[in-house]
Amino acid sequence: MSLHHYDPAVPHTMSSWMLEELSKGIGGAPDQPQVYILVDVMFPGGTMRFAKEGVGSAGSGSYDGRLLSAGDLVRAANVLVSGIPDQEIEFEVSDVGERSTNRRLIAREVATHKNAIRNSTVQDWLATTACPRAGWSLRFNGHLSGLPRQVSPGVWRLRARPNDTILKHGSIPRRKVTTSAWPNAHPDALDQWHPIVLGKHVSASLGDGGALPTLYLDTVGFRYGWTIGTGKTVTTVYEDGAVTGAAYSLTSVIDGEGTLWSIVDFTTDRGTAVITVDAEGPTTIADGSGSLITNPLDQLRHVVTQYGYNDYHSGNYYADSSVPLDAGSWARTSAYLANKAHEGAQYLGGAAGTRGWLQLLSDFADQYMLRFFWTNAGTLAVIPAVDPYLDRRLLYADDQWLRANELALSPPSFDFDEQGIKREIIVSYAPSAVEGKSFRDLKVSDVTVSDRVTDELDFNWSAARL
Question: Distances in Å between the alpha carbon of 425 and those of 81, 155, 362?
Answer without folding.
Answer: 19, 56, 20
